[in-house]
Design a protein that fits this description.
The protein is mostly helical. It has a domain of 158 residues: CDP-alcohol phosphotransferase transmembrane (TM) domain (Four Helix Bundle (Hemerythrin (Met), subunit A), Up-down Bundle), CATH 1.20.120.1760. Helix content is 63%, strand content 2%. It contains 9 helices and 2 strands. α1 packs antiparallel against α2, α3 runs antiparallel to α4 and α6 packs antiparallel against α9. The radius of gyration is 23 Å and the shape is globular. It starts with 26 loop residues before the first helix and ends in a 24-residue tail after the last helix.
Amino acid sequence: MKTPFPPFEPHGPNDEARGPRLREIPLRLIVPNMITVLAICAGLTGIRLAFENRYELAVAAVLVAAFLDGIDGRVARLMKATSKFGAQMDSLADIVNFGVAPALVVYIFLLDQAHSLGWIAALIYTIAAGLRLARFNVMAEREHKASWQSEYFVGVPAPAGAMLVLLPVYLGFLGLTPDRTFAYWGAAYTVLIGFLLVSRLPVWSGKTEGNGIRRDLVLPIMLALMVYVALLMSYTWHVMVVTVVVYLLSLPLGARSWAKKYGTYTINGPGDPDVDDANDDIGRHI
């Protein structure tokens, strides 16, 4: 009696029809993706905690999500585990953790008292974060990168934006009454941060390649970092407010430094170096 199907022959004519074979994946390739998944979980948990009026835990969860989302790529590079799948996962996590989560936490804590204006402000920030991340991805994939990209960001980076937009919440934790007047000011501030995300403002990246730290400054820098962490653990919201203010004050300094080098206060203006205006695929005015 004949069998209804021909016998399977390894590497034979029917092997290809069985589809791709399952194979083992090294653990080092999974670790960065697990960090990304944990970041998404933290960001979404922050939203839930905000709905439950547990605002301090909500902000902590969002900041933890931003931290995890910021290190997953570096972990992947250190472990030589970069992949296209991981890059796509990271992009999806970024919009949740740097755009949606902080905007909703601010809205639930304060902006809802400004009614429609507060919601519009939250929408503007979230969309701006998405545009900022899309622009970053396009620039990162360029075959020929500009020499200044190792020293400057184009606009405020999304992780910093998530930290900055939560300033009204930090102030609320310090005793500032979250009334309607504060809500309107918070809405204007949220829109401002969204504008800084999509602006062409040159922002120091802090990752200049080839520049080391002087040996005599290593220990003082380590000590200053330890003091900062200790203060952050003891006076969390005071330190976060100071950190936001210092970061905002540093933005004009970065623009001034860029202007001294290249003669303009924004990136991709007339005469900027290393920019092909005719083939700029990210849009000069986004």
